[in-house]
Amino acid sequence: MELTYITVSPLGVPQQVIAVNGMFPGPAINVTTNYNVVVNVKNKLNENALITWPGIQMRRSSWQDGILGTNCPIPPRRNWTYQFQVKDQIGSFFYFPSLNLQRAAGGFGPFVIMNRIIIPVPFSTPDGEITIIIGDWYVRSHTALRTELDNGNELGVPDGVLINGKGPYRYNTTLVPDNIEYETINVDSGKTYRLRVHNVGTSTCLNFRIQNHNLLLVETEGYYTSMQNYSSMDIHVGQSYSFLLSTDQNASSDYYIVASARFVNVSLWQRVTGVAVLHYSNSNGPVSGPLPDPPNDAYDTSYSLNQAMSIRQNGSASGARPNPQGSFHYGSITVTDVYLLRIQPPTLVDGKSRSSYNGISFVNPDVPINLADAFNVSGAYKLDFPTQPFDRPPILDTSIINATYKGFIEIILQNNDTVVQTFHLNGYSFFVVGMGFGEWSENSRGSYNRWDAISRSTVQVFYGGWTAVFVSLDNVGIWNLRSENLDRWYRGQETYMRIINPEDDSSNKTVLPVPDNAFYCGALSYLQRNHRASDSASPARFASLELCLILLALPYVIIHEFH
To answer: Rounded to an integer, what distance in angstroms lies between the CA atom of residue 260 and that of residue 296?
Structure first.
């Protein structure tokens, strides 16, 4: 996997983006449950980089997570090999560069985990698969966006929305310039296609819809859902969904595919609309006329909240294992710890605009947390993250959560910010048991879904409201907990959960040791050796592959173009 800069013009203005193997967006990674994945990342950018894999649980190995709290960055002109197993997982995910707003410049691509053949899928095999990557987009570079945030400014209204790295179809001659390259999705009449849709944007929730077609939801971030039809779906930053699309229309013309901004002043955000074309092979002509309407609720988030809570887990379907997804009765498990995380609007801390959880604006340590533990580096972080909000101004700190292995925790996210946010937890999925407006209280638990809540790894938190999740802590490691809104994340709205097995010993290893090829930084820089292409992968015979799988010791190249 080679990270480079290329010049493209998705909105009609030439700009530098981050390409993966020369492609923008990057190529799809397709694997099967329990495969071992080996990805050699070559950093040909002019700054440090890491690739992260949200939703991939990295069982026993947070060393592979690709976040500053777990990995030293890959310097320019160097390479590093990720090695991890997609243990007991299926579903739709994506990868992206995790440092310094780089995702706002590209470097992202889909990551798909297919079921093993022996595990039935709860719907008929589709006639084809289609990946759609959506996201708000700025013409300014990610470094210019960083400067805006460093100067205390907001990023402002994006310049547009991209669909598979391309600008909008010219549905309106005033709003869309001529000669914009747009995406066309080709289908045949009378077929069923699986659509995997990912919002990889910076901070904007997008309403996704296809003119005159229903979207039958079947999976989100690794878990099968109860199958329901939606005319459109609000997809928040960092979220992934799978739909079945039936091409059952008369093809009198092509059809619009739309991704438009939500919860904004529509008159100011008219240009922030992605438009692609669904083209039937027997279509009688191009699409024209007005776009299909979004939900007619402007700033009213109640429709979107109700839609989110209508997504339920398919309890009878098998996921990665033969046993049904619903066999884990989460609603009857005793909660061991409760964390109430309050989100406030950005505020000045030591003269800089910062974001926080519970008044802690996180500062990444010079030595990643798991390396600090492995080499007994004192003072790298603190295990005193508050379980409740502090009644004081925010501070800068390296405070993390000292979580209990095999605990069952409740996390309540209280969003007192002015924007919708998404919350992500690496290394885990969680049950989305509740959402509401106003201040969360203990009485809010009476509204929790304790039977068939969807399990996922990224969830929205509406402004002026709360979201509650349950998490079963069975994965030892250091796991990032963050806002997926890149501006808030960059300003410090994150922390980590440190989960240690106190009974771990040589005969019962629930966490893997430091990788042989680990980079070292900060106080451990003296341990660093040069990483050549030949010693970044193990075994060495895989070093020349950009990206490969190992299954029964057989390499299999899995880079695919998806659009």
So the answer is: 12
89 torsion bin: left (phi>0), alpha (psi -120 to 50), beta (else): beta
Give residue for tokens 């509650």. 468
Contacts by 291-296 with C-beta closer than 8 Å and gap 24+? Answer: 291/171, 291/211, 291/256, 291/258, 291/260, 292/209, 292/210, 292/211, 292/212, 292/232, 292/256, 292/258, 294/207, 294/209, 294/232, 294/258, 294/260, 294/262, 295/207, 295/232, 295/234, 295/262
Q: What are the start-end ranges of the H helices in 286-330?
A: 302-309
Cis peptide before 25 (omega within 30 of 0): yes
Spacing of C-alpha 384 from chain mean position: 27
Tracing tokens 């709290």 back to the chain, one arrives at 69
Extract long-range pairs of 347-351: CB within 8 Å, 24+ residues apart: 347/393, 347/394, 348/152, 349/393, 349/394, 349/395, 349/396, 350/396
User: Quick one: pLDDT at residue 533?
Assistant: 42
- Rounded CA-CA distance 523/510 in Å is 27
Query: Which two tokens mark 481?
Result: 């907990």
Per-residue model confidence (pLDDT) at position 539: 33
Give how far Cα 81 sits from Cα of 18, 33, 94, 199, 541, Å: 19, 20, 18, 26, 13
In degrees, rounded to 5, the angle at the alpha carbon of residue 349 between the alpha carbons of residues 343 and 353 is 70
Burial class (CB in 10 A: 0-12, 13-18, 19+), 148: middle
Structure tokens at 135: 């996201």
Token pair recorded at residue 308:
């989110």
- The answer to whether residues 400 and 62 touch, using CB atoms and an 8 Å cutoff, is no
* Torsion sign, CA atoms 8, 13, 16, 17: negative
Taking CA atoms, 283 is separated from 60, 92, 255, 511, 523, in Å, by 51, 30, 9, 55, 63
CA distance 475 to 57: 8
Q: What's the CA gap between 563 and 560, in Å, rounded? A: 9
Q: What share of the chain is helix, strand, coil (3-state, %, to 5)?
A: 10, 40, 50
* Region at 451 (left for phi over 0; alpha for psi -120 to 50; beta for the rest): alpha
Among 33-47, 120-134, 308-322, 486-500, which is the least confidently predicted range? 308-322
d(CA 217, CA 98): 28
Q: Residue 124's CB: how many other CB atoms inside 10 A? A: 8
Bridge-based pairing state of the strands 28-32 and 109-114: parallel
| Residue 499 near residue 466, CB atoms below 8 Å | no
Q: Please tell me the distance from the alpha carbon of residue 469 to that of residue 453, in angstroms, as a whole number.
A: 9
Q: What is the pLDDT of residues 174-212, one digit of tens each?
A: 999 999 999 999 999 999 999 999 999 999 999 999 999
Q: What is the CA radius of gyration of the chain?
A: 23
